[in-house]
Amino acid sequence: MDYEGIGAQALDSIAAAQDLDTVEGLRIALLGKQGSISGLLKTLGAMSPEARQANGPRIHALREGVTAALTARKAVLETAALDARLAGETVDLTLPAPERPRGSVHPVSQVMDELAEIFADLGFAVASGPEIEDDWHNFTALNMPESHPARAMHDTFYLPDLTAEGREMVLRTHTSPVQIRAMLATGGAQPVRIIAPGRVYRSDSDATHTPMFHQVEGLVIGKDITLAHLKWTLETLLKAFFERDDIVLRLRPSYFPFTEPSVEVDTGYSYVDGRRVVGGSGDAPGHSWMELLGSGMVNARVLTAGGYDPDEWQGFAFGVGVDRLAMLKYGMNDLRAFFDGDARWASHYGFSPLDVPTLSAGVGVTA
Ligand code: PHE
Predict the structure, then answer these.
(1) What's residue 334's pLDDT?
(2) CB–CB of 25/77 below 8 Å?
(3) 156 alpha carbon to ligand 1 midpoint, in Å?
(4) Nearest to residue 294, comparing CAs of 333, 256, 264, 327?
(5) What's the pLDDT at 287?
(6) pLDDT given at position 364
(7) Are both 73 and 219 inside the same structural domain?
(8) Probe ligand 1: pick from 220, 258, 293, 303, max atoms within 8 Å of CB?
(9) Are residues 237 and 301 in the same domain?
(10) Please, which residues have CB within 8 angstroms of residue 304's CB and are 6 or more apart in sequence?
(11) Residues near 255 by Cβ (< 8 Å), separated by ≥ 6?
(12) Same structural domain for residues 32 and 159?
């Protein structure tokens, strides 16, 4: 028998195998139970002892050679398969990442941050109060007793339950109750300089009114605070906020139960490319006045309700609509879009996902 010839032929076909299935097929055909080399081994039993002694080592060598060749070929093909897979699965890190939906800072948040920033430079602290307020803080303490007609002006949302003390609960109709809370917190003995930004609620809805909107309240209490301080503060605020020096204010006598005297503050504006732009006197050609906020000197009754002696202390307060300020500064025309939660709307008006402070420090204050 030409065992060496059979071996050489087997090694040739193993070397020619191009994939692992072929190698496995060869293993079964050569070394399996019915395999050709297994068959050769079986022939040993029928041989004479001399023939067996001569052929045994040759057949065993044949089987070992083939086994080693199969193992080696299998390893080569496995490595090649792995290499091919790794090459096919490489990630191209230079490809642009898929776009993710991006949110945006809301104009109201942006404006509140801007106002807080400006007022921080003027030495104001930020105060807050509950949105579900009792009617004493929201009305009575602000010189609007139960029968007061101004209560009806506010289109108040009342809650069904009373407080433990039997007071009616409302969704606060303005941020002014925070004035009372801020005054009571000092014990009536210290100057106050706060702003209170927050949500307020009135049963009202059209293109310029939404049932929930935002205000910033301001309150300054001291021993020698006058209307001149109020005017300077508002002028400084609006110049910093609108980032222009030509802001002209007009103070008009008005009425609020919680301030005396009360002044409504108008600002001059004109239309530029169909948009209202604040700046200049409302009496200048092409200009008009627009009402911007309510303010006044804190009513003596309000000081008393806040625990301050009106013979010793006085101060000013103002309340301004944040949504309106945002519309004016950023040129939006429909208030309702503020509450649609559409990120495309915010980015259309230039708001980005990151809240980047836009106003510089050091506004109007000298040490
Ligand atoms: N609270 C008033 C409003 O909501 C605004 C205001 C605040 C007026 C403080 C005067 C002083 O209309």
Answers:
(1) 82
(2) no
(3) 15
(4) 264
(5) 96
(6) 43
(7) no
(8) 258
(9) yes
(10) 310
(11) 262
(12) no
Please report how many Cα atoms fall inside a 13 Å half-sphere around the Cα of residue 109, on the Cβ side. Answer: 12
Q: Which two tokens mark 61?
A: 């060598």
Q: Are strands 249-256 and 212-222 parallel, antiparallel or unpaired?
A: unpaired
- Number of DSSP helices (H) and strands (E) in the chain, helices first: 12, 11
For ligand 1, whether the C-beta of 316 sits within 6 Å is no
- 8 A C-beta contact, residue 293 and residue 265: yes
Residue 17, in any domain of the structure:
yes
Given a contact cutoff of 8 angstroms between Cβ atoms, the answer to whether 178 and 319 are in contact is: no
Give how far Cα 282 sits from Cα of 248, 268, 296, Å. Answer: 8, 4, 21
pLDDT in tens, 127-143: 999 999 999 999 999 99
Residues of the chain with pLDDT under 70: 355-367
> Separation of 49 CA from ligand 1 center, angstroms?
120
What are phi and psi for residue 152, nearest 5 degrees?
Answer: -65, -30
What pLDDT was estimated at residue 240?
95
Residue ID of nearest Cα to ligand 1 atom 2: 319
pLDDT at position 333: 81
- Residue 86 φ/ψ, nearest 5 degrees: -60, -40
In a domain, 311, yes or no: yes
pLDDT of residue 313: 98
Number of domains within the chain: 2
Last residue of a domain, one of 60, 88, 116: 88
Q: Are residues 134 and 21 in the same domain?
A: no
Does a structural domain hold residue 193? yes
Q: Is residue 102 part of a domain?
A: no
Instruction: Supply the pTM of this predicted model.
Output: 0.71
Q: What is the pLDDT of residue 366?
A: 40
CA distance 237 to 257: 24
Is the domain of 165 the same as that of 307? yes
Specify whether 116 is located in the same domain as 145: yes
C-alpha 65/C-alpha 160 separation (Å) is: 95
Residue 311 structural domain = 107-349
Q: Cα dihedral sign for 233, 236, 242, 245?
A: positive
CATH of the domain at 244: 3.30.930.10
